[in-house]
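Feature request, filed as a ticket because there's no other form

It would be nice if the structure record came with a short human-readable summary line next to the tokens. Right now we just get the raw output. Example of a typical job, pasted below so the devs can see what we mean:
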Amino acid sequence: MKVARVTRNAIEIAAVLIVRNEERCIARCLTSVAPWVDRMVVLDTGSTDDTVAIAQELGAEVHHLPWPDSFAEARNHALALADADWNLIIDADEWIIDGGEGLRDWCESAADLLGCPCIHNEAEGATVQRSWMTRVIPRGVFYEGRVREQVVSVLPRYRIALDIGHDGDLAPQLERKKDRYAPLLLADIADGYERLSRPDQALALLAQRSQKATAGLKGKERLHASAMAYIDFAAAEPRLFHLAFSRFGSDDKTEKDGVPSAFTQLRLAVAELQNDPAKPVDPDTLALAWAVAHGIASLISDGMWKKNDPRVAAALRLSFKGIAPGK
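Raw output as currently delivered:
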């Protein structure tokens, strides 16, 4: 059944999506946006499930494009197809929680602005991380970057009263796409183009490796695996390690431009250990252990220590005593 949409014509607003195999969630997304936009433009990049049929049933315009190995290229193609006055960029694993009724008024009154809704990112452990991302853009604004694509514009960005949920970073969804991002990040690196001066690219790669290393682990095992992934990254990619923390800092508590913090896995492990009635761990001990891991990684990335330096193992044994498995 098609969902009713607003039909005022002062301006045209399109919801713009790129999708592939999103039958799990695309109906939730489209149902949530339909009342607040004039059109829903879906660009499918190779679905083999019922994504296309569901989108068409809900009234979306569905177009097709072979996956171009670039999120920016796919988004820009979808934006060109939409050709709307304003575009709400949303992913299939997202949905409008609140504020949709104010979207049109904001677009009609905005002059030379980009709109940044609040993204509520559901994470493991019943936690929710919030970030404001550029998602409401006028005609003529486009993206760059194969992965962790960013809006390119000199227009100022303005937080708007629109709340969007996101559950794509929960374990089942991450498992499905865990190997998708790293090759694109590495292709960006091989190109050596300007975006690679951005900390979010380097942090995204670090987060992806940390998530892969800690997949399926909990508590002590997750904490130790996360720390080792952190150190391994510093040893293998010292320039990117420095780049990752040149703006975010080692104690960042929120996402930046939609990039999950590399410390998400650590915070989840810390929460599990602190709440373990069988063997609670003192928070100061956990903080010290992670500070040592960060210090080791920094020394390695600076070339002062090698990963196989005996001092690395000694420092880890001391700081993770009573926490990490086998220590």
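Something like this underneath would help us a lot:
DSSP finds twelve helices and eleven strands in the chain.
The two ends are 58 Å apart (CA to CA).
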